[in-house]
Inverse folding.
């Protein structure tokens, strides 16, 4: 959509010979930048989500004791309906879970529109897959996270997990 | 070709009985001599004969029922512990030996009046386990004629696929009519292609073996077997990707393998099979051949089950054999179950089809098993039972006594079970150990926690105080951060799904923000059972699974952005009906400026493409929304769809009226703010509970004074039931 507008604008300006005017050129560049921004934004969100899902599940399965570093101080975990608030409590909760093994089947990420977050870069990550907790049957799960960018580091603001018996 | 003599004798024995086995043996001898004179088969037969003598012991087994005893004994070595088979004549490796015996046994027996009918099947059972390991033994015997080599090749291709079909049903490229495969008496057998095991399989239906009602593996719309003629000439990857590209219906091949030079795989429904046959002769290979695809109804062995009536009967019998108090399932001698026998059903758990069915029943009906008794079932391997291990982890007691297990390595397949008590006595494997301590050690190696073996107490297991707990926190229902949140979300969802489930989803425009994002993901594992893979294709095309969609432009394309795009896209998705009773809601973020919550549950598609029942899907949607004058305004919407599990399917749409699920105060949902206040006031003044107060107000059109008047009148006449005043 934006791309079309940008192209249209460019054609329009160029055909009218306005392109020599530095002001118009600036406008075109801004529009183009907006298009690129949109793509870059999505690309960033996707990469953040990809990196995150790798790190998160690997840490969860293998080095769960450092998992709390990923969570924001105000983070919120909802695990199968159990609400846990704050990194300490989350650590405690995670420690009590049996050893786990996650296998991802899907991953999807979306950036939140700037209007909704007052400029705070935020990404939604949704995953689904199977998980086996030691001594339990394999289960299907879906999980979603909101990640926010805190000075070059992405942190988990909320974490929602639901699983159900596979069969 | 090489060892069939031995095989033949063994087959014959169970059928005609021990007394005849000697005669049969003599016959074999005669046959060998006679054949040897012909020269053609001479060398092979000599080899064969050698093997026979070296393996004399195998003749003494008499499997009296049609389970696997005789077959399994012969093959026993196959698990790795072999009696020496005496040289290359036996086809090399032990497993191979079993296989050759089988095929040739059938072949021979065809030529000799079909004496081996009935028990060939046992052989066949054995083979399947053997196929995988068949490779190394190959060529050890060196078929004496091109013909036999040819057969041998065929065998090897078969062997590459562990869970393959019975040979009687497999694709026959030369159009040999089915009837030719039966063991006709007086058939010379010379020109036939060693389909002994196939014949054996058919023998299942022989009168008297009680298998007349065995399953056919599915109706017309079930699994289809696709054969790509000469498919081996093309590289597998190229072949599959080309077919997937050309085929109008997306599909996932199951159990891809080769049969001779043909590529073979299975697809789960007829639509897919028809899609594939429609592109037959339309695809050119790189070499310029046109690919010919054939399809026929056939269920892969790995998913085959017994038919419905049998299933029900087994289910009933299993229900009687299950003790819920101790979570104990007693499947001991299921074959000899009197009630099942009365219905002419013999459940031979050593056959995968029956084990599959039993496991399916367990999955559906028995959530927890702690004690499992599998004794007296003639199990000769535990590969099929292993399917149960991953789904029912809690088994602590296992009785495997009086089966036909030959090797301790079988136990490896079920070692995930943290057994505390195990019974193994009466299995040949027990005789493999010279000392009791070696036996215990072998068991402990797999099950370190076992404290009782065959009823004897064992020294306490080695334990460290590092045992982690395995209990999961209790699963709770919907979680709302607070009641305000709950109300907002419930109101929103009710409206949202009302429009979403309607014919036209344009009304959703209101619900989305200008800059809203939407994306969709289809979640189904590659190894999913067919019901999960079935026909999610409407959604698959737009699935933005970042694990597979790597290209940025694709990622941008699949992410719908802006209100118009999102709603236009939603409008194209299949019409649905959501089950509000299935909804579970979790609120992740609840701030004044932003709310993020997850709704999961099931919906069904209103129109069924395949003509059957409309499919039921499981979904999970993550909504992120900002406050808006009329409630909420969605900025992000992420949908994950998968097929509903059998449990979900069963529970779906069972509650009749779609009442809005968990509401803050029962009975007061759906009321406006002033109405709620009115109800409360009325309840206070009249002394009735809120429910009755509400209905009274409703019946009087929310006119407070009129309601009060009616109430007073009725109360005076004593017409209000006492429960109205229960609070």
């Amino acid at each position: 959509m934006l791309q079309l507008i940008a192209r249209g604008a460019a054609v329009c300006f160029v055909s009218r010979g306005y392109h020599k005017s530095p002001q118009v050129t600036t406008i075109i560049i801004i529009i183009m930048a907006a298009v690129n921004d949109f793509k870059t934004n999505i690309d960033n969100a996707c990469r953040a989500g990809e990196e995150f899902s790798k790190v998160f599940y690997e840490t969860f399965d293998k080095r769960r004791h450092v998992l709390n570093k990923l969570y924001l101080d105000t983070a919120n975990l909802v695990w199968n309906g159990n609400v846990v608030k704050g990194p300490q409590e989350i650590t405690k909760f995670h420690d009590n879970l049996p050893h786990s093994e996650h296998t991802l089947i899907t991953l999807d990420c979306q950036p939140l529109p700037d209007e909704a977050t007052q400029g705070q870069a935020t990404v939604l990550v949704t995953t689904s897959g199977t998980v086996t907790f030691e001594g339990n049957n394999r289960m299907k799960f879906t999980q979603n996270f909101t990640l926010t960018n805190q000075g070059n580091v992405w942190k988990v603001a909320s974490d929602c997990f639901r699983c159900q018996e596979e069969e | 070709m090489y060892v069939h003599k031995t095989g033949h004798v063994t087959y014959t024995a169970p059928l005609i009985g021990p007394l005849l086995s000697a005669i049969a043996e003599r016959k074999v001898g005669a046959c060998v001599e006679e054949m040897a004179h012909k020269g053609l088969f001479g060398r092979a037969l000599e080899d064969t004969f050698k093997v026979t003598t070296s393996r004399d012991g195998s003749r003494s087994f008499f499997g009296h029922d049609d389970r696997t005893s005789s077959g399994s004994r012969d093959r026993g070595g196959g698990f790795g512990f072999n009696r020496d088979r005496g040289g290359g004549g036996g086809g090399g490796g032990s497993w191979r030996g079993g296989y050759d015996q089988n095929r040739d046994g059938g072949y021979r027996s065809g030529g000799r009046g079909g004496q081996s009918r009935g028990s060939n099947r046992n052989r066949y059972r054995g083979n399947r386990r053997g196929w995988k390991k068949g490779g190394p033994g190959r060529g050890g015997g060196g078929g004496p004629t091109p013909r036999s080599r040819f057969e041998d090749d065929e065998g090897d291709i078969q062997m590459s696929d562990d869970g393959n079909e019975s040979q009687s049903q497999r694709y026959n490229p030369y159009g040999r009519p089915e009837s030719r495969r039966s063991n006709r008496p007086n058939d010379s057998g010379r020109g036939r292609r060693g389909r002994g095991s196939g014949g054996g399989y058919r023998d299942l239906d022989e009168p008297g073996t009680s298998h007349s009602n065995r399953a056919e593996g599915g109706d017309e719309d079930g699994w289809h077997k696709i054969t790509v003629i000469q498919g081996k000439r093309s590289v597998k990857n190229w072949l599959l990707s080309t077919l997937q590209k050309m085929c109008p219906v997306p599909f996932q091949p199951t159990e891809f393998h080769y049969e001779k030079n043909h590529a073979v795989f299975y697809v789960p429904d007829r639509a897919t099979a028809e899609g594939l046959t429609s592109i037959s002769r339309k695809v050119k290979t790189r070499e310029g051949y046109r690919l010919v695809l054939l399809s026929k109804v056939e269920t892969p062995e790995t998913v085959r089950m017994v038919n419905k009536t049998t299933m029900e009967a087994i289910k009933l019998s299993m229900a009687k054999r299950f003790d819920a108090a101790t979570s104990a399932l007693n499947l001991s001698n299921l074959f000899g179950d009197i009630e099942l026998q009365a219905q002419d059903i013999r459940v031979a758990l050593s056959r995968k089809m029956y084990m599959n069915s039993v496991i399916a029943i367990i999955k559906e009906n028995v959530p927890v098993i702690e004690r499992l008794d599998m004794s007296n079932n003639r199990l000769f391997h535990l590969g099929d039972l292993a399917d149960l291990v991953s789904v029912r982890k809690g088994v602590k007691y296992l009785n495997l006594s009086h089966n036909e297990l030959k090797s301790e390595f079988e136990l490896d397949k079920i070692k995930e079970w943290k057994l505390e008590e195990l019974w193994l006595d009466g299995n040949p494997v027990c005789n493999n150990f010279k000392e009791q301590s070696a036996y215990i050690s072998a068991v402990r190696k797999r099950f370190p926690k076992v404290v009782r073996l065959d009823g004897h107490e064992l020294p306490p297991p080695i334990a460290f105080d590092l045992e982690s707990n395995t209990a999961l926190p209790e699963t709770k229902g919907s979680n709302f951060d607070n009641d305000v949140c709950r109300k907002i979300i419930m109101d929103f969802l009710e409206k949202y799904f009302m429009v979403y489930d309607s014919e036209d989803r344009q009304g959703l425009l209101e619900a989305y923000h200008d800059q809203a994002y939407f994306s969709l993901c289809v979640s189904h594992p590659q190894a999913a059972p067919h019901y999960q893979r079935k026909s999610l294709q409407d959604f698959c095309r737009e699935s933005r699974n970042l694990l597979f969609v790597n290209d940025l432009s694709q990622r941008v394309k699949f992410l719908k952005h802006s209100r118009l795009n999102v709603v236009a896209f939603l409008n194209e998705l299949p019409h649905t009906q959501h089950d509000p009773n299935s909804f579970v809601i979790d609120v992740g973020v609840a701030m004044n400026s932003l709310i993020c919550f997850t709704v999961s549950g099931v919906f069904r598609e209103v129109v069924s493409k395949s003509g059957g029942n409309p499919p039921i899907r499981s979904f999970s949607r993550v909504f992120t929304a900002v406050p808006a004058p009329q409630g909420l305004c969605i900025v992000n919407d992420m949908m994950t769809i998968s097929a509903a599990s059998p449990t979900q399917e069963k529970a779906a749409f069972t509650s009749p009226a779609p009442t809005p699920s968990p509401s803050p105060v029962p009975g007061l949902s759906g009321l406006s703010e002033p109405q709620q206040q009115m109800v409360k006031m009325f309840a206070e003044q009249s002394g009735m509970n809120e429910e009755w107060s509400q209905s009274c107000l409703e019946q009087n059109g929310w006119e407070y004074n009129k309601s009060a008047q009616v109430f007073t009148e009725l109360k005076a006449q004593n017409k209000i039931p006492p429960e109205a005043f229960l609070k």
